[in-house]
Structures are given as structure tokens and as C-alpha cells.
Specification:
The chain is an alpha/beta fold and about 325 residues long. It has two domains: about 100 residues, no CATH class; about 200 residues, von Willebrand factor, type A domain (Rossmann fold, 3-Layer(aba) Sandwich), CATH 3.40.50. It is built from ten helices and twelve strands. Strands 6-5-4-7-8-11 form a six-stranded mixed β-sheet, sandwiched between helices. Strands 1-2-3-12 form a four-stranded antiparallel β-sheet. A two-stranded antiparallel ribbon has the order 9-10. β1 and β2 form a beta hairpin. The longest helix has 19 residues. About 30% of the residues are buried.
């Protein structure tokens, strides 16, 4: 039987029973002291009350030093060990491409500060959780391109994501182009699981690849597509035009998301469609996808033990040497 205490595992804990001898030894020491040193009865101690001796005070510590030494020796023979644990991790990651809409409507302010900033933040949090996966980033508006190829360097992915802004592409919503770009990045992947997470807030109105055609290609290459429609219901403050200096003019516009199309794409590829009407619901959606797409991890634990009795034995012997040295030199008594 072993006992674990204070970070140590004791192989022979039965030796701790020896500590029960401490009060017995203490009693014997007190009895021997009374026998060895006679008691001098005086009518009054007032005349010597002011006399103090540093040697007398230090001598009272000698039994304590011996008790500590005994305790440390008991701990040493109880054989303390430290457990050094190592893990060998074999992970079969998933290849994931995030596809993000950069059309001007992503600046709508029904999310605070806007849909794009919230989508970037939540997606970055998702990336941080996928420790063993290769992740890429594709963007689309009226056209599409790969912002970051598949990589395990998630800091790079998050840097690219943080730099995303509306206006760097021709305006529009080319959902088919965005999906086709992501599938093109995944088609040659050797990963057993290939996933696209496509986020948009509008209706397909641009591009030369139809969304259903892109979904059929994804299905052909065993790419699973999760689609997310982001935007509140009703009307929202949305860019309706743009000034000559590039700044957007906002006005109330109806939120229009082609949910039927997004649901069809997801069903064709074995994925799911989600609707995010708030920042909180978008966070929950990414958590759901994180649970659905679990990375297969094989962990092998290796335990190594280090014997730690030597340090306890060393300090015990050191205390004994100090105690004996003091007892028979500067703290020696006569008789």
C-alpha cells in the first residue's frame, strides 16, 4: 500500500508508525532530565530573576533538533518518491476552412459594433480551441480568394482574420465562389475529415459559380459544410451607399438571408445550418460545431519515479551533527 501526501508518494508508509515513539521519547527525556539534574529549593527567586543565559535558552532547543532529525529519518525510510508524468500525444486532426462574408452588409450594426467584428472575434476563439487541426481562411464578397492556406500555425490564421475588413473586394455576395474556393483548398487533403464553415448574412447575387454547384463539388470530395446565417430579424442599420471618401452611409434595411439555400448546402454535404441572431447565439453555434467535429487524440501516459529519500536523510543527519556538536561543545553542562 502506498500513500500520497504533499506531492510525494510513500512506498513504505508503515514506517510512519515510528513517529508514535516521539511522545514516549519526550517523556523519557523529561524523566531523565529530572533524575540527572537535582532541584534546588529556594525561599525566593527574586534575587536571580533578572539573570538570563543565552546558553540556557539554546540548550532548550537541543531536544527539538533531535526530534526533527528523527522525524526526517522516518520520512526517509518511508521511501518518498516524486512522480514525473509524461504524455505522448498522437492526434489525427481535422482540416477546416473558415469562409467569411466581407460584403458591405457585414457592417450592419444589429451586432455590436457590427456583424463582421463579432464574427471575427468568435471565429478566432474557435480557432484557439482547435489545437491539433489545420485551419485555413477564405473570404468572399462579389469575388473570392484564399486569405490563409491550411496551417497548424493558428496565430497566423488569427492575424489574417484580425486584418479582415469590408471593401477590399468588389461588393456583392458570391456564396458559391466562397464555397468553391474553400473546397479547392481541401480537395487534395489527406485528412479523414474535411470541414468548411461558411458564414454569410445575405443572398447570393454575384459570382460565376452557383452555390448548389459548389455544394455538389464539396460532396464529391467528401467535404462537410456547416453554414451560418448571421443577422437579426426585421430591420437593421446597414450601409446603403458610400461617400466619395469611402465612408459608408447607414440606413435601416431589411435583413435578408437565403436560409433555404444555406440549409440545402448543409444537408447536401452532411453538415448543418445555423442561424445567429446575436453575438451570444453565434458563440453557441461555434461551440456546437466544436463539439460535433471532435479531433481524434490518442494519449499515452508514461510515469517515471524519482527517489527523494536522500534529501530527507541528509537534513536529518545534518541536524543530528549540529545537535551533538552543540551538546558537547558550547552547550556542554557539568556534570
Amino acid at each position: 500500500m502506498t500513500v500520497t501526501f504533499g506531492g510525494y508518494t510513500f512506498i513504505n508508509p508503515e514506517f510512519f508508525l515510528l513517529l508514535l515513539l516521539l511522545p514516549v521519547i519526550g517523556g523519557w527525556y523529561y524523566w531523565r532530565y529530572r533524575q540527572h539534574y537535582a532541584t534546588l529549593r529556594m525561599s525566593s527567586l527574586q534575587s536571580v530573576a533578572h539573570i538570563t543565559s543565552w546558553r540556557g535558552r539554546l540548550r532548550a532547543l537541543l531536544p527539538i533538533l533531535r526530534a526533527f532529525a528523527f522525524t526526517l529519518l522516518v520520512i526517509a525510510i518511508a521511501r518518498p518518491q516524486e512522480t514525473l508524468k509524461e504524455e505522448e500525444i498522437k492526434a489525427e486532426g481535422i482540416d477546416i476552412v473558415l469562409v467569411m462574408d466581407l460584403s458591405s452588409s457585414m457592417l450592419a450594426q444589429d451586432f455590436k459594433p457590427d456583424r463582421l467584428e463579432v464574427s471575427k472575434r468568435v471565429a478566432a476563439e474557435f480557432v484557439s480551441k482547435r489545437e491539433f487541426d489545420r485551419i485555413g481562411l477564405a473570404v468572399f464578397a462579389g469575388e473570392s480568394f484564399t486569405q490563409c492556406p491550411l496551417t497548424t500555425d493558428h496565430s497566423i490564421v488569427k492575424e489574417f482574420m484580425a486584418s479582415l475588413k469590408c471593401g477590399i473586394l468588389e461588393d456583392g455576395t458570391a456564396i458559391g465562389m466562397g464555397l468553391a474556393t474553400a473546397v479547392n483548398r481541401l480537395k487534395d487533403s489527406e485528412s479523414k475529415s474535411k470541414v468548411v464553415i461558411l458564414l454569410t448574412d445575405g443572398v447570393n447575387n454575384a459570382g460565376y459559380v452557383k452555390p448548389i454547384t459548389a455544394a455538389e463539388i464539396a460532396r464529391e470530395f467528401d467535404v462537410k459544410v456547416y453554414t451560418i446565417g448571421v443577422g437579426s430579424t426585421g430591420e437593421a442599420p446597414t450601409p446603403v451607399s458610400r461617400r466619395s471618401d469611402g465612408r459608408y452611409i447607414f440606413g435601416l434595411a431589411r435583413v435578408e438571408i437565403d436560409e433555404q439555400l444555406l440549409q440545402e448546402i448543409a444537408e447536401m454535404t452532411g453538415g448543418q445550418y445555423f442561424r445567429a441572431t446575436s453575438a451570444e447565439s453565434l458563440e453557441q453555434i461555434y461551440q456546437n460545431i466544436d463539439q460535433l467535429e471532435k479531433t481524434e487524440i490518442e494519449v499515452t501516459s508514461i510515469r517515471r519515479y524519482s527517489e527523494e529519500f536522500s534529501s530527507f536523510a541528509f537534513w536529518a543527519l545534518l541536524l543530528l551533527v549540529i545537535e551533538i556538536s552543540l551538546r558537547y561543545t558550547v552547550l556542554r553542562t557539568i556534570p
